[in-house]
Amino acid sequence: MTEEEVRLVIIQSLRDGGRKSFQDIMSELQPYDMAYQYTHLPSKNKNKFLLYLTIEQLTDLIPELNQEEQLEVLHKLGVEKSTKILDLMENDKLASILSTLDPEIVDELISEMKKEESEIVHILMNYTPETAGRIMNNRFVWIPQHYTVREAVDKLKAFAELAEYLNYLYIIDEEKKLVGVISYKDLLLSDLQDKIGDIMYSRVVTVDVNTDQEEVAKIIGRYDFVSIPVVEDDHTLVGIITVDDILDVIIQEANEDIEKLSASGKAIDFNTKSYIAAFRRLPWLILLLFIGLISGSIIDGFSSTIEQVIALSFFMPMIAGMTGNTGTQSLAVVVRGLISQDLNFKQSLKLVMRELWVGIIIGAICGFLISIIAYFWQGSFTLGLVVGSSLLITLIIGTLTGTIIPLLLYKLNVDPAIASGPLITTINDILSLLIYFGIASAFIAQLT
Amino acid sequence: MTEEEVRLVIIQSLRDGGRKSFQDIMSELQPYDMAYQYTHLPSKNKNKFLLYLTIEQLTDLIPELNQEEQLEVLHKLGVEKSTKILDLMENDKLASILSTLDPEIVDELISEMKKEESEIVHILMNYTPETAGRIMNNRFVWIPQHYTVREAVDKLKAFAELAEYLNYLYIIDEEKKLVGVISYKDLLLSDLQDKIGDIMYSRVVTVDVNTDQEEVAKIIGRYDFVSIPVVEDDHTLVGIITVDDILDVIIQEANEDIEKLSASGKAIDFNTKSYIAAFRRLPWLILLLFIGLISGSIIDGFSSTIEQVIALSFFMPMIAGMTGNTGTQSLAVVVRGLISQDLNFKQSLKLVMRELWVGIIIGAICGFLISIIAYFWQGSFTLGLVVGSSLLITLIIGTLTGTIIPLLLYKLNVDPAIASGPLITTINDILSLLIYFGIASAFIAQLT
Predict the structure, then answer these.
(1) Is residue A251 part of a domain?
(2) Do B329 and A421 touch (CB under 8 A)?
(3) Which pLDDT value is given to residue B436?
(4) How far is B380 from chain A (nearest CA, A)?
(5) What is the ipTM of this complex?
(6) pLDDT at A360
(7) Is the Cβ pair A362, B282 closer than 8 Å?
(8) In terms of CB atoms within 10 Å, which of A312, A326, B95, B209 comes out highest?
(9) Residue A439 has what pLDDT?
(10) What are A23-55's pLDDT values in tens digits?
(11) Choice among A154-163, B404-413, B423-432 with the minimum mean pLDDT
């Protein structure tokens, strides 16, 4: 059945059938599909749709909706039903929903929630954004190490509804410190009488609550884990992070890199309103406007040179553009490389040397090419030489700028992607104009 | 223990202890850690390290190494041991290792492998790169629907070593067609006498073998699945894709987007040799060189205007730079947005209208600002008006170019990221010069 056919059946069951026939359809849908159907339903059917869903289904549905729809649904359900749902919801999803709501509404909702649940949410929302503590959830199953396999399986059965993933059981000691882990596969292959302490795996890979989410993604990707335990400084187990949360982190971090590299402004998507998008993009553009005026005053400084040989201005955009671009190329290589690999000083130096050679090779080839073109276009051998040698030098410098600036930022613990494309481009613009007109002024006697 | 301490213990056990003490350490290490230790071991210890590992451990170790080390290890182990390992290896990892090896070596290795295994690899390597067929593996467990829960659990136990993840069991009919799925959690919560056919979930989300890997990532991310079944056209189950493979896909696709947006050349990382990196980056740079010459000839065409009012050239880099940048901003928003959301014609039109408004807002603000600056800097009201109105128009056009071009490419089923940053920048460069000098020429009488 296509999405549209499913929708027609849903509408029909809402109109003619009872709750039972509606539930028969719902039990076959994934939360994403449920949310898709809800979003595309005619407004007049939406209330009954929500009414017919169970609390558990609503708990699954809400995190899949966008922010506006979440608000709308919570509003339609009323405070009492909403808090029941929030009590049931995984804490990481709950924290992310609450963090987008109006503080007043959050307070109202939390005050109605179970004390135990609301405390957990408070703790979760107090961790720094984009750290392990903020994205972890507490839906894991733990056992003491003196358990037998049989006891472990029984506890697992009792908590199966609660546990988000059933791949690992975590083993803790009397002080709630994490001492081991056992996969469900190992449980299955063991004898029911075996002691957990004997068969568990004790070199557990963990992350600290304060670990950056990007680092967590790196570790999960490295080990191909489905989930990873999160511990406090004293090794107390406080949560787990699952790979589906990490998928979102990786997409978000890649988007942030692209936002920074293209200076496109924070968090603009297809649904952002035009004036919000405009004001998020403006700061960068105004900065660039002023930096662009520096280029203007450099040209102003060399205006007598240009007035004498107007042909010099023909090559200006090409030299500035290519220098800017070679810098962006190097920048992209550095920023993306640092995502999967850390660099020490020696490796950084090796990279800078590599990029120096890249600059020399592309500078020599492009410089030679433009010399020939300039000579045939303008009929001046000196002009060809000036343009060609300028391009050689500016491409080398552009490549190095695009490599060294992000590496320096990285060493200073600043996100290297902040050295965004346009910033590198503008620095290279200014350097390339200085070099080009500097060389041209030196040869001005031969050029005129 | 730190990585270095572990390494010292390993070296000691290789020198003094026997295989048993070495295995005690290894059993606590993850494949990634094993590979890390192997890579950082002094060369004289490496042979013994490999000798002491079991075939299963070698099978886990090899996919974690880089290409050169893989070759080195396979060479050290010899053909006989290597083929044993390749027989055991997950097919997707195997296919990705073989696809980087020399064809002659591949033929030699495959000819020694078990017929059954080598046939599967042949089939896998025949799928188009970057499709579901190429990244799937066949380590899944399937059962017929007449099984009881008890029979299912027994089969699962028998195949537990083989199954990469134990989250789902797939249910197939007599013709090997996929008819249902059941999670391990559901098995656990069911009665041992229940029939699988009664409790299975029959609306299975699947992907086709030819589905693009980016689309697979979108689906897995959407549903928070740990794995997804892959089927042929006739719905025969042929493999599964697991979320850890998808993590790699998402990182790879984000890198490709950044490569294209910054035109930084295909697959350059920290280890790429300088001449290779240079030649991968050159095609773009040479293309940009020629496009840059078009800007040059536009300036050439307007050289009499510039000669009359040299101050016009001061604002040239700023206008071109800002138009280019606003285009890149829009481009980045479109390219990244399309990763998580598909657009129909109506939505595309809405997006274009949104970006038109963004262009008008930022154009009006930046244009007004630069008018004032130009007036105070050069003391000419007309010049201020010319520069400001040019910036207003070019920013609107730049924003639209950066939106419409990738959307058109997307409708034509071309990857919109190919409309790379530099390309949009260059198109906008040319347009902005034409508009700026066009307006300036119209007012030339008032400017001189």
Answers:
(1) no
(2) no
(3) 93
(4) 16
(5) 0.70
(6) 95
(7) yes
(8) A326
(9) 92
(10) 888 888 888 888 888 988 888 888 888 888 988
(11) A154-163
The residue segments making up the domain with residue A7 are: 3-135
HEC profile of chain A: CCHHHHHHHHHHHHHCCCHHHHHHHHCCCCHHHHHHHHHHCCHHHHHHHHHHCCHHHHHHHHHHCCHHHHHHHHHHHHHHHHHHHHHHCCHHHHHHHHCCCCHHHHHHHHHHCCHHHHHHHHHHHHCCCCEHHHHCECCCCEEECCCEHHHHHHHHHHCCCCCCCCCEEEEECCCCEEEEEEEHHHHHHCCCCCEHHHHCECCCCCEECCCEHHHHHHHHHHHCCCEEEEECCCCEEEEEEEHHHHHHHHHHHHHHHHHHHCCCCCCCCCCCCHHHHHHHHHHHHHHHHHHHHHHHHHHHHCHHHHHHCCCHHHHHHHHHHHHHHHHHHHHHHHHHHHHHCCCCHHHHHHHHHHHHHHHHHHHHHHHHHHHHHHHHHHCCHHHHHHHHHHHHHHHHHHHHHHHHHHHHHHHCCCCHHHCCHHHHHHHHHHHHHHHHHHHHHHCHHHHC
Whether B110 maps to a domain, the answer reads: yes
Given an 8 Å threshold on Cβ–Cβ distance, is A328 in contact with B262?
A: yes
- Please name the member of A166, A189, A285 whose beta carbon is closest to the beta carbon of B160: A189
Q: How far is B169 from chain A (nearest CA, A)?
A: 14
Check whether residue B85 and residue B181 sit in a common domain: no
Residue A166 domain flag:
yes
Which chain B positions have a beta carbon within 8 Å of A366's beta carbon? 282, 285-286, 289
The answer to whether residues A129 and A161 belong to one domain is no
pLDDT of A195-242, one tens digit each? 998 888 888 889 999 998 888 988 888 887 788 999 998 889 988 898
Establish if B39 belongs to a structural domain. Answer: yes
- CB B263 to CB A370 under 8 A? no
Q: Which of A157, A289, A369 sits opposite B318 (nearest CB)?
A: A289
Q: Which CATH number do you get for residue B355?
A: 1.10.357.20
Q: What is the pLDDT of residues B299-358, one digit of tens each?
A: 888 888 888 888 888 898 889 888 888 888 888 888 877 876 777 788 889 889 999 999
- The shortest C-alpha distance from A58 to chain B (Å) reads 16
Smallest Cα distance from A108 to chain B, Å: 30
